[in-house]
């Protein structure tokens, strides 16, 4: 069984500055919690992020669900990222040919390459999607997660598709920093695993989302980061909920370290 490494050791082993920074933040703030910030009003979203900032290592955005997007929102989000020390992950799920994703990543209304530290991509187009994204000049030296598995019922990212995705990650480590997955797929300490579909109790929603607990995800399945949306922002006290997920996620990691 491979030895489980602490966040500081992982940071030292990472050659990519984004993963290095991520593990340093995780070590310093004692958190493996990513907030899935899926509110549609920018003022409410910024308030949520400011309140939960102390407990998280990443804010994951869906920038295209904001009703009132503006440059000012990005400015304020970036200020909060510096204030609370977290990375910004735009969950854009690029999934087209290389030439198209170049424009989707750098251009349009959102100019994602100017502000995101982390992006992600489906591998259904083949390696061209990675080649395209990699060509774009970025502000923060952006790293890319490949969607190797999904949390939703009946999804097709399984078996050979998942294995081919792992291979693509291993072959593109200058830009690919890890996976969206619901299990540990690679023993390489430079590749990070992030898992959505997390609540404090197992269960599902009405549209196919399936929830696992922090201990199932981190201790048993060996993922690195829990991604939590409604479990935090729909709670009566989101800051308190974030604190509970921080503790649950971190305790689950300590349990894996010491088991
Ligand atoms: P929630 O915790 O509210 O179910 O939100 C999960 C978040 O993670 C959503 O933003 C969703 O888009 C994202 N996500 C997911 O749920 N499953 C996946 O397989 C991949 C995702 O990006």
From TrEMBL:
Family: In the C-terminal section; belongs to the OMP decarboxylase family. In the N-terminal section; belongs to the purine/pyrimidine phosphoribosyltransferase family.
Keywords: Decarboxylase, Glycosyltransferase, Lyase, Multifunctional enzyme, Pyrimidine biosynthesis, Transferase
Keyword Ligase in annotation: no
Section of the entire sequence shown: 215 to 473 of 477
EC identifiers of the protein: 2.4.2.10, 4.1.1.23
GO biological process, one term: 'de novo' UMP biosynthetic process
Functional note: Bifunctional enzyme catalyzing the last two steps of de novo pyrimidine biosynthesis, orotate phosphoribosyltransferase (OPRT), which converts orotate to orotidine-5'-monophosphate (OMP), and orotidine-5'-monophosphate decarboxylase (ODC), the terminal enzymatic reaction that decarboxylates OMP to uridine monophosphate (UMP).
Lineage of the organism: Eukaryota, Metazoa, Spiralia, Lophotrochozoa, Mollusca
Active site feature: 91, 93, 96
Positions bound to substrate: 38, 60, 151, 209, 229-230
Identification of the protein by name: Uridine 5'-monophosphate synthase
Keyword NAD: no
Signal peptide: none
Catalytic activity: orotidine 5'-phosphate + diphosphate = orotate + 5-phospho-alpha-D-ribose 1-diphosphate; orotidine 5'-phosphate + H(+) = UMP + CO2
Domain Orotidine 5'-phosphate decarboxylase: 32-245
GO MF annotations, alphabetized: orotate phosphoribosyltransferase activity; orotidine-5'-phosphate decarboxylase activity
Quaternary structure note: Homodimer; dimerization is required for enzymatic activity.
Pathway per the UniProt entry: Pyrimidine metabolism; UMP biosynthesis via de novo pathway; UMP from orotate: step 2/2; Pyrimidine metabolism; UMP biosynthesis via de novo pathway; UMP from orotate: step 1/2
């Amino acid at each position: 069984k491979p030895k489980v490494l602490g966040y500081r050791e992982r940071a030292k082993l990472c050659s990519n500055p984004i993963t290095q920074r991520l593990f340093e933040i995780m070590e310093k703030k004692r958190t493996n919690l990513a907030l899935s910030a899926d509110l549609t009003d920018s003022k409410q979203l910024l308030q949520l992020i400011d309140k939960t900032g102390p407990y998280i290592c990443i804010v994951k955005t869906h920038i295209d669900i904001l009703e009132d997007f503006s440059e000012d929102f990005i400015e304020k989000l970036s200020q909060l990222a510096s204030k609370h020390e977290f990375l910004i992950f735009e969950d854009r799920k690029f999934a087209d040919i290389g030439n198209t994703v170049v424009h989707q990543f750098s251009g349009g209304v959102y100019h994602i390459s100017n502000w995101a530290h982390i992006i992600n991509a489906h591998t259904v187009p083949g390696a061209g999607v990675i080649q395209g994204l990699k060509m774009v000049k970025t502000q923060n030296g952006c790293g890319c997660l490949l969607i190797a598995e999904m949390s939703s019922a009946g999804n097709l990212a399984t078996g050979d598709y998942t294995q081919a995705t792992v291979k693509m990650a291993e072959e593109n480590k200058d830009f690919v920093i890890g996976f969206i997955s619901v299990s540990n797929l690679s023993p390489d300490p430079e590749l990070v695993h992030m898992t959505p579909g997390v609540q404090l109790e197992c269960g599902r929603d009405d549209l196919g989302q399936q929830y696992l607990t922090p201990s199932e995800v981190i201790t048993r399945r060996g993922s690195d980061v829990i991604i939590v949306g409604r479990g935090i922002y729909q709670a009566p006290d989101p800051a308190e909920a974030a604190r509970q997920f921080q503790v649950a996620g971190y305790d689950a990691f300590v349990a894996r370290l010491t088991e």
